[in-house]
TrEMBL record, chains A, B, C:
Ammonium transporter AmtB-like domain segment(s): 47-413
Subcellular location(s) per record: Cell membrane
Keyword flag Transport: yes
Sorted UniProt keywords: Ammonia transport, Cell membrane, Glycoprotein, Membrane, Transmembrane, Transmembrane helix, Transport
SUPFAM superfamilies given in the database record: Ammonium transporter
PANTHER family in the record: AMMONIUM TRANSPORTER, AMMONIUM TRANSPORTER RH TYPE B
Protein name: Rh family B glycoprotein
GO CC term, one of those recorded: plasma membrane
Biological process according to GO: ammonium homeostasis
Entry's Gene Ontology molecular function annotations: ammonium channel activity
Length: 460, 460, 460
């Protein structure tokens, strides 16, 4: 029994993984990465620009909003678990800091090479944060059940596959997906669901009592929810074209989210026990409107269309939490801690379909959004078909990729926690006691018992 | 007795209200709303603009700051109550998401119509958030004592009256009030005070023990306070004219708030028990400087003038919390949970007066702020008189409106909580237990007893 | 014994200090401060600018990010203490609100005078927030052991010395230090360390049990950490030159922080007990990469160089927390509550050295960063030497200044808390009980016993 726990000790595993990964990153950055035209002193000054033409002023405020979503939004959204707050926000921090560096290389390799060098600037920063978001979505499915080393391994492969899928969609097929309904949400969700399927734990009910929230942990999670909700208009518009495109995308997303919030509250009260609102729904389903507007948000969706999309997304998402998640767990053995299928999976697919339909209805007036349509290289319905094909490609990459990466993550060397230690910070963190909390103290004592074997053995 | 409680069940009331409201919104948006010149692909591209001229780049960062104030600022400011955090942040979220959509229609109807259509863009988004802020101020007065359905009903009417009052001030009278000392703060405060007066509960002391904070709930509230404080310069400058006006307004507000903070700490230590600081004062009165600079902030108030305004606002606000609020409750039967009279009411009136005085002292140099003064259509003192009249109009609308809407909200069908269930999340939310908190568990048990009648009857 | 405690009563001390300081500020602002060309209605309109040329649009989003770092970042980072959250975030708020006003005057006096007047605008706001940051760093060293009056006294003197040191570096020596590795971090850290050395308490172990975190206080602290981490690119780039400089600085800092995060996690697991991560390291050392990129961030450091800097900064910082801090306390009697030596001291010195080396390697291509080098007035190696001399000057100012100011703060009239009352909110704040927390209630009772003498005497 003790050998089983000894594996979870991170004293060498985590440092070795982090150091190797970071040193590889530094070497590759040294060889491959250079400033782009807008960050390089010489290049920028030799060109005859007004300072304002620097893309920094068009995109940096949006970048910072996205950055907050990645670190505070995703990080705190997952702090709802009573005894996994350190890991939620802390592992989110770690894998995001890794993934954004790795994504810069992978995405740059596929569509940022200039004379053998990867060019970086504010747009690459946004794209790297986007790719990171996809990894964090997958993290939500396995939250509480994986070691930080497993998560870093997942990030290495998921970022790579993300970059390939994104390259096929955006560069080869000419798909439009500025807010990432497909590339970020659908991909991240189905990848993560497949990973958690492979990592299925039949005896997870051993830690069932910890897989729930306490009063203040739900309030911490609301910080994450609200930052995601507020900044989603910036997320969807961060890399759309300058001018009306950024403006329109932000506006559409704003209305989609507002409508989604009302349908979420309605459905939560309607479906939950005794007419009482369920924090899980509010924290998650109210965001589905942002996901569902990810593809069509930059198009001429209109506020009216956006609100319909958001309204339906909220309904679908709550229904998913209430009725579909239990079935996925019992029938398909998919243990989805955060319910990413309801927040990112179904709304992502919905967003892809909305995008395909909207694209196929495009008229000449929205020429700039679809350059190939504007140039008469493509018909609108052809573009719509491309959008639909892109969804299928994304689902394929996500499911096959998640399957393979799940098996890699399953290797015992990566130190997955035991079933009884899931959803528990104290196997990875020095955890202080609670002020006057007797049960809390008891918990601490208990988990120290679990930890004992690690201390006596110190194998690795 | 049980019938009384049964009314509070939200299983059907809340979904029906949300669905009806959202469907009406969607239909009206479909009929009435279209993109403005800066968000519409065709219109923007046919005009010969630089991308940078798009108002998005002038105002979107300010919009996001305002957005954070509405959802995080107001939402978390109200989480100070020990057992009402879910409702504070959650109902704030719900009514704000509704109000911003409804405000877009109401404000657009009065001053955004173009050929029978309401035009939307970043400026309408900011204005809708502003109007929403006014509703959330009123929410502060009735916090803990109203059902979400009552709050939605309040929002429907308050937004409408806000838009009428705003139209009279800004479009008919030519009043300047960019930061909303009158239109937002004075209106929202006196409207809310009148509503809570109508909803007076003589036996509110039954839930007195829950109408207070615990240690960590006060820290959550400080998140709200600080975001309001930090972003208030963006709030006051969000819709002022481009260039020096936005710049100056932000600067003035920054100094007003800084000075207000020092006088707030001073007065709190001076008046509170034993020289100890009172979190209620710090969380609220330190913000009064932003309210009081709402009208004159865009004028040539100077940093010196701004600091005097903020300094006095902090003093007045703390004195209000300490001495006036108890009198309002005992003599005038105004139960003002958050003390909005001290944070928004008195400082709002003060801001209106400061604006009137500053306007009447305006010289030609500030022509752009007062176009009619610049064009010699008005004298400065005439503008000052208009500003003063606008305060009276606003107070009239707020008090009469609040009176009427209060009576509507009193209808039993909207499911107000019983006196003993006030300031208690568990009648509206699934509330998890506290980690090792015995009193917390007791509370949960008790409130489930309250909830029992609802379960057995399930009338509606 | 009671006399000792009576001194800590703030009923008159704090109000008198706040009122005197604020009134002096208001008078000096009235005499000395006026709008600059970009905030003054007359001046801006008489010049022939596009609205977009107003510096507001170049810098205000960065200003707001810095503002969040000052009030939320620093404030919540220090809430990790179990019973000092009100003071951490509340005193941070107070002294920051004071310091930014005072800094405007002091910095303006040295480098913002135009015809006898101090000009203010968005750049002075950023600089004032920067100077405030330095004071808050010093606050971290004495956290829990000083009264708010002592902190205000410290701020008065520290801001003044900061402005003098900054003037010598930037204006006389021509040093480059846009992100303040020297002027902000090194200065604030060594100043604070000297102050805490002078205020050494041999019997501080009396309050040792309160000098630690609880579960949720560590989560609150993570809010501070993440906002500092996310917005550090804005901090370092806030006052660099428009265009590629701002862009490049943000980019460099982003990579430095990401690399620093991985080395921090690695070192924390490697050095901490049993391979478990230590929240103290994650909350603090992961930020060292931002500090260390403060000087060289605007130079052509390259992403590669930035990552190396961040990587090493994280390692040094964790080692400092683990091994150096205990030695500083036991051997040098430096009680550094937040470990500012590890987060700001060593990484600040490192940043200064990196800046000196990078400057000395500068070629003509980065002419704009070093105007004197570009104009052939200086060689690159001369600039490098100047950078190194600046570090020595800063250390001198900080150490001598901290020594003198420490002795001033030691005067009994400023009401330092007793050894047993350190790290305890309840001597300065009305503190509510905890929900069902028995130990919490006990603590409250105990501290009320401490407070008794104050109540009976009420001397001042």
């Amino acid at each position: 029994k003790s050998g089983c726990y000894a594996n979870t000790n991170m004293r060498l595993k985590l440092p070795i993984t982090c150091f190797i990964l970071e040193i590889i990153l530094i070497i590759l950055f040294g060889v491959l990465v250079e400033y782009d035209e807008e960050t390089d002193a010489k290049k920028w000054h030799h060109s005859n620009h007004s300072q304002y033409d620097n893309d920094f002023y068009y995109r940096y405020p949006s970048f910072q909003d996205v950055h907050v979503m990645i670190f505070i939004g995703f990080g705190f959204l997952m702090t709802f678990l009573q005894r996994y707050g350190f890991s939620s926000v802390g592992f989110n921090f770690l894998i995001a800091a890794f993934a954004l560096q790795w994504a810069t290389l992978m995405q740059g390799f596929f569509h940022g090479m200039h004379g053998g060098k990867i060019h970086v600037g504010v747009e690459s920063m946004i794209n790297a944060d986007f790719c990171t978001g996809s990894v964090l979505i997958s993290f939500g499915a396995v939250l509480g059940k994986t070691s930080p080393v497993q998560l870093l391994v997942m990030a290495v492969f998921e970022v790579t596959l993300f970059a390939v899928n994104e390259f096929i969609l955006l560069s080869i097929l000419g798909t439009k997906d500025a807010g990432g309904s497909m590339t970020i949400h659908t991909f991240g969700a189905y990848f993560g669901l497949m990973v958690t399927r492979v990592l299925y734990r039949p005896n997870l009910d051993k830690s069932k009592h910890k897989n729930s929230s306490v009063y203040h942990s739900d309030l911490f999670a609301m910080i994450g929810t609200l930052y995601l909700w507020m900044f989603w208009p910036s997320f969807n518009s961060a890399i759309t074209a300058h001018g009306d495109d950024q403006h329109r995308t932000a506006l559409n997303t704003y209305y989609s989210l507002a409508a989604c919030t009302l349908s979420t509250y309605a459905m939560s009260a309607l479906t939950a026990h005794d007419g009482k609102l369920d924090m899980v729904h509010i924290q998650n389903a109210a965001l589905a409107g942002g996901v569902a507007a990810g593809t069509a948000g930059e198009m001429m969706l209109t506020p009216f269309g956006s609100m319909i999309v958001g309204f339906l997304a909220g309904i679908i998402s709550v229904l998913g939490y209430k009725y579909l998640s239990p079935i996925l767990e019992s029938k398909l053995k998919i243990q989805d801690t955060c319910g990413i299928h309801n927040l990112h999976g179904m709304p992502g697919v919905m967003g892809a379909i909305v995008g395909a339909v909207t694209a196929s209805l495009a008229t000449i007036e929205i020429y700039e959004v679809f350059p190939d349509v504007a140039d008469n290289k493509r018909t609108a319905s052809y573009q719509g078909a491309i959008q639909a094909i892109s969804l299928a490609v994304t689902l394929g990459f996500a499911l096959v990729g998640g399957l393979l990466v799940g098996f890699i993550m399953k290797l015992p060397i990566f130190g997955a926690p035991s079933d009884a230690s899931c959803f528990e910070d104290s196997i990875y963190w020095e955890v202080p006691g609670d002020e006057g909390s007797h049960e809390g103290q008891l918990t601490t004592v208990k988990t120290e018992e679990f930890a004992k074997p690690e201390e006596t053995e110190k194998l690795n």
